[in-house]
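Retro notes, structure queue

What went well: the backlog is down to a handful. What didn't: a couple of records were mislabeled last round, so from now on we paste the full input next to the output in the thread. Example, using glutamyl aminopeptidase from Anopheles darlingi:
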Amino acid sequence: MTVKPTVVGVGAAMTGGIRPAGHIPHSSRRPSVVSDEREREQRRRSIVILSLLATCAFLFVLCLCLLLALVTVGRRFSSHNLTDVSSDLTADSAVLLLDDNRLDENRSTIFLPNSVFNSREHTPVAGSMNRVFKMGEQIVRTLGFRLPRHVKPVHYELRLQTDLTSETFSGTVGIELNVSEVTNYIVLHSKRLTITDTELRALLLTNDARAPADGQEIGIRRAYEVPEHEYWVIETQDDIAAGDYRLSLQFNGSLADRIIGFYSSQYRDKVTNKTRKIATSKFEPTFARQAFPCFDEPHLKAEYTVHLVHPIGDGYEALSNMNVSEIAENTPSPGLATTTFERSVSMSTYLVVFIVSDFMYRERLVKPKYGDPFPLRVYATPLQQNNTLYALDTAAVIIEHYVDYFGIPYPLPKLDMAAIPDFVSGAMETWGLVTYRETSILYNSETSSTANKQRVAGVIAHELAHMWFGNLVTMKWWNELWLNEGFASYIEYKGIEKAEPDWGIKEQFIIDDLHGVLTLDATLGSHPIVVSVENPNQITEIFDTITYSKGASVIRMLEDFVTPPIFQQGVTQYLEKHKFASGVSEDLMTELDELVTEVSVSDVMDTFTKQKGFPVVTVEVNDAQYILRQKRFLADQEAASQETEVSPFGYRWYIPLTYISSDNGNVRRMWFPPKDDIVLLEIKDAGGPNGWVKFNYQQVGYYRVNYPDSMWDQFAKALTANVNTFTIGDRTGLLNDAFALADASLLNYSVALELTRYLVKEQEYVPWSAIASKLKSIRNLLYNYISYDHITQYTRQLVSEVVTSVGWDPQENEHMKNLLRTTVLDVACTVGHPECLSEAGERFKRWLNNNDVIHPDIRSIVYTYGIQSGVSVADWEKVLKRYEEESDANEKAKLMAALTAYPDQRVMRRLLDLSWDVDVVRTQDQLNCIQNIAANRYGEQVAWEHVRENWERLVNRFTIGERNLGRMIPSITGRFTTQARLMELQDFFARYPEAGAGAAARAQALENIQNNISWLKRNEQNVATWLSEVLTSGGGGTESTRR
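Corresponding output:
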């Protein structure tokens, strides 16, 4: 306790109390009076001292009593003979040994030790109390988000029974465990389950090592849930020795009101006009614990024997990872069947899958180069059977190619794929039974566009790549998720190219994966590829663009600098060495390091995977040399001072440089080590004194390049003279780099805009896709400025020639041209191209009133812009009715685009309210509906208001751990450009501080708005000046077309 010091006043400063003796005149004092005053003062002091001594004595006695009580309680807690224990947490006991030497270096939380034991003998040491606290709640208090390491699952015997009518399930699970050390507790995962019985038995060895016998039952002191860690904790009455055990649990749960874990989905049968229910599952990353108690961490692989009890008849059957072993009809009761599946290979919990449905399938036999033939099936609702044929044929080609590429047989006896009516993700790579959202696997030439077809091929190729990367070899912990998703995101391009060699799919990588992640990774809100994660929300959050697209981009760069044959060999060696087990990044890099002598693959890749961001290489020129420098690229260079995350490499990179020159089109290579300040290249060896050099061939490297203005001018003139001076990839890369550098004020905006002049002659999809996106982005930023009309007019002029060239009528077998058509018609209609808007409006009215057929490739264009062409609310109602009646998922998506594009605020508010009705909008589509409305200028404000007013309701429906809910925020606020809007978002976050799996998305949303504000301050005037000069010299009006 702190005692406030006494302040003594002097003279007039003292305003109260007894005056000191010094204030009484000395001549007025009498000796007797002074003596009496001294005696009274001494008596007062004596009384105070005696009072203090008495108080101290009382407190001393009280402390002795409390100490005696604590000793008594401690003795009772330390007794080894305690058997009758209350179920109250504070009255129970457990053992906690704190041993700092047992901390695992890969763990971010404390290792939970076992009870007192001899470290050599692993036998209990009775009476030993060294560093031991026998208090049961200590286990709970010390639990982190990683399971203890002394218990590992070996095999799950799992039985689940579904009741589709009541949307519930019940089950039992027997888990064979290996306990590596003496312990008195077991911890596993459980969430949203009611566990009704827990039993633990020792296992006895038999002649069949895979079927041990039950031995002695182990006494359980108590079993309880720890909700904050999603744990089920079992404490035993006595210590149990290292060995094998079976943990058996009975449980039940709900299938309703969720779209993760084990859940119900439904669809409308058009023939009977009845709703049909199914049960399905989605467990990645941490949702298996919502279906059955389990050790829900990726490295804790085990084998599974699954028994599913389901309705018999009416077309219902059960599916799981493995092939069916037995179907027992009318078991356990009439009207039910029990389907038993073969024992699985060793796999992670998130790869387990169950489906109870009335689906039908199409089938073909896959005959791979390595391994035995196996059946491939595609399951879907009965009316969707014909829409599975493309997926079936494409998957067969891709899976055979992967077997050949990896040189490793497909490990399971069958491969099923299923189209699920309600599915939160695009697809899920569950081993042996891959599950998909319907739009990701079903293709109908009458309703599906070229882009829809490419998506189906891409998602299938991605998921089947996981059969090796992710399933056969799994990351040890979620911080290495890129080993799953980054590799699948890159390898999928190899699969698509094999199935569809005429699509030019490799060129599309830069617009589908690279450019988007370069934009995100240029912000402070980014994160390294390999990032520390611990709790379920953090784990869910890293399923993001960095993990997928940056992972894929650096792997693409890796393959390029080690060469494709070495890459393929190293990958195969990695998979062979770690199959049916887990790995980390270093394992893969070690395999490649053994094959590459020129450079350390680990040293190069660590600079791209273990720090966020990427470099910009700046090219300077003197009389004889190009001088190259590197620094971190940020969208807002002034934000660098706000960086709080320290990089282990000081934000320097080991850059694999590639280049071509005006006098030599061959690709040449050089390295830029992080320790070097500059790298030199002789001009005579690359372009000569009057030529140019272009770095980062095909934009394969994960970096940007800036050049002197004079060289940018050479690029622009070369493209204007001959579009094919550069490859499609290099043209696209130049456009992307120029505008990113201009956005960051590292290049004058006029230089970037000058580069676009050549586009009047551009006829390829990939460059147009890149620039169309950028021009629309600039136009959105300029919405409140006069230059909005100027950028609109300039874009309209740019696109006119290519619009005339591609026309409105798609052709078969012109995949890239069909994609180009959709892209340029979209941007033309966006900027008010009169002929485009007129054509879209006319075709829309004929479709709406006369049921004219619109080709699927232009259907989204016609729907989206036709509904803006003066149609009535009654016409909008007609589109809504068609949406509600439509069963084809791709067509529903196109109709949703039309509904959300209607230019009326009140109608958009009504649609937002309708999005809560699952009979109108499926739960899986609600967030997309909100985001589409926000992309409509008439819906932006009402969508933002709706989200703020209904945030708690959204969280209740999707949970705060749903990453797509968090990512909706930067999507709907992406066009905000004012300080007032920024403050609105800050206020919203302050009102709802719990971010869940959306923490990074919140930071990105705030940073994005701030970057928009900064962009306008830095660039608006420069853009306006250039546009004004160009349009003045070229003529043309400036009518306003604000959309």
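Agreed that this is the format going forward. Reviewer comment attached to the example: The first strand starts at residue 96 and ends at 97.
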